[in-house]
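User: Please fill in residues for this 100-position structure.
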């Protein structure tokens, strides 16, 4: 009986956290966009990073639904996702046009 109760509590926490995450993205989308844009300097790349970080957050919530500060937790995921993309871009070779 205790196992069933624990599972129900976990599902309820997950649902509450997903709702909180959706509200956060809805209300603070512009701030998230500015953060992502500051790393990428490209509109489409910034939007991709927001989507990627949201997907990472949803997957993480399924593993750990005991998040105390959704806002701080999500922004950390967003910033780390932006940093990872920036590092990846730094290692890409750049093309140089050598015309005579």
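Assistant: Residues filled in for all 100 positions:
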């Amino acid at each position: 009986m205790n196992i069933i109760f624990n599972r129900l509590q976990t599902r309820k926490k997950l649902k509450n956290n997903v709702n909180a995450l959706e509200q956060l993205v809805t209300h603070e989308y512009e701030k998230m966009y500015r953060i992502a844009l500051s790393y990428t300097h490209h509109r489409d790349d910034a939007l991709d990073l927001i989507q990627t970080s949201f997907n990472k957050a949803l997957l993480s919530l399924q593993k750990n639904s005991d998040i105390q500060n959704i806002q701080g937790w999500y922004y950390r995921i967003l910033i780390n996702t932006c940093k990872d993309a920036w590092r990846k871009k730094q290692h890409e070779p750049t093309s140089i046009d050598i015309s005579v």
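For context: The CA atoms of residues 20 and 39 lie 25 Å apart.
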